[in-house]
Design brief:
Largest sheet: 7 strands, mixed
Structural class: mainly beta
Number of strands: 11
Strand content: over 45%
Oligomer: single chain
Shape: globular
Radius of gyration: 14 Å
Helix content: under 10%
């Protein structure tokens, strides 16, 4: 298993930027796909972004393309989510998640974006964007 701890959330104004960090412990981090999800009260947790084990492949939800960037530093066991041009609708609790399944070749979009593909989750960090 991988233990995940998110940080970097906070209260910002529309148009501002934030960088979320997710520190991982466990020897399997370097081989794991990593994802960010978000959730608001009363709604399902939704996919935001995913990065493969090497950092060479990323995938984003349409509503964050061009604004958010996911990256990772395997030497530091950390994955990041750089969020620019934040909007009030980005307000949510953001969760980091690890996909510990060994996946060979191309990964289906449905697999990358499904909560069921992720085995370990952090506790979440609140992001609030005021208008």
């Amino acid at each position: 298993q991988v233990q995940l701890i998110e940080s970097g959330g906070g209260l910002v104004q529309a148009g501002d930027s934030l960088r979320l960090s997710c520190a991982a412990s466990g020897r399997t981090f370097g081989g794991s796909g990593m994802g960010w999800f978000r959730q608001t009260p009363g709604k399902e947790r939704e996919f935001v972004a995913r990065i493969n084990w090497s950092g060479g492949s990323t995938y984003y939800a349409d509503f964050v393309k061009g604004r958010f960037t996911i990256s990772r530093d395997n030497a530091k066991n950390t994955v990041y989510l750089q969020m620019n041009s934040l909007k009030p609708e980005d307000t949510a609790v953001y969760y980091c998640a690890a996909d510990l399944t060994v996946r060979i070749g191309s990964i289906a979009i449905a697999t990358m974006t499904s909560k069921k593909s992720y085995n370990s989750w952090g506790q979440g960090t609140q992001v609030t964007v005021s208008s």
